[in-house]
């Protein structure tokens, strides 16, 4: 039995981590720049969200095919259950959040961009739907800060408090 996730799983994990930083940062710092730069920040945000969605679906499909390597020493059942719940929340959040964002952008009925390309939009805007989705998107994005923080704290607790291999299973392999 292997003691680490596959290189592909590790790569996707850390690439999603970097994309989440870029995607969140694009929205957090856009207000510090003149309005004419906002479309560029929005494009970075949307492009990051689409990339996260694709990678999270790929990661989920790979995860369903390849079970997680065992945690050594084996944690208590309650810790295992909480870990599974936490990962379910992460998968749901970073799949649903971009989908809501995409439907929101589409519903506005105006041009929007991803990866430098003009994306399709509704022929008739539905601002009520777009506004509702914007509220959900914002709420879930803020929830994401907490989920990410709890995920990182749990990984550190596994490593330093319970002294198991949870964190090490997701670290890149050292080159020989």
Automatic annotation (TrEMBL):
PANTHER family xref list: CYTOCHROME B561 (PTHR30529), SUPEROXIDE OXIDASE CYBB (PTHR30529:SF4)
Protein name per its UniProtKB record: Cytochrome b-561
Single Gene Ontology MF annotation: heme binding
Keyword Iron annotated: yes
GO biological process: respiratory electron transport chain
Membrane topology label: Multi-pass membrane protein
Gene: cybB
InterPro entries xrefs: Cyt_b561_bac/Ni-Hgenase (IPR011577), Cytochrome_b561_oxidase (IPR052168), Di-haem_cyt_TM (IPR016174)
UniProt subcellular location: Cell membrane
One Gene Ontology cellular component: plasma membrane
Organism: Yokenella regensburgei
Cofactor: heme b
Ranges of residues in domain Cytochrome b561 bacterial/Ni-hydrogenase: 5-172
NCBIfam families associated with the record: PRK11513.1 (NF008566)
């Amino acid at each position: 039995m292997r003691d680490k996730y596959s290189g592909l799983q590790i790569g996707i994990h850390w690439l999603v981590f970097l994309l989440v930083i870029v995607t969140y940062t694009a929205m957090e710092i856009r207000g510090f720049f003149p309005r004419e730069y906002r479309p560029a920040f929005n494009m970075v945000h949307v492009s990051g969200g689409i990339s996260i969605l694709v990678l999270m679906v790929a990661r989920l499909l790979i995860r369903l095919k390849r079970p997680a390597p065992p945690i050594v020493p084996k944690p208590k059942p309650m810790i295992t259950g909480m870990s599974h719940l936490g990962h379910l929340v992460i998968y749901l959040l970073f799949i649903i959040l971009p989908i809501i964002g995409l439907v929101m952008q589409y519903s506005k009925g105006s041009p929007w961009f991803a990866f430098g390309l003009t994306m399709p939009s509704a022929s008739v805007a539905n601002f009520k739907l777009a506004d509702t989705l914007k509220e959900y998107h914002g709420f879930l994005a803020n929830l994401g800060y907490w989920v990410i923080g709890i995920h990182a704290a749990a990984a550190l607790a596994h490593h330093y408090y319970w002294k198991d291999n949870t964190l090490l299973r997701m670290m890149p392999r050292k080159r020989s």
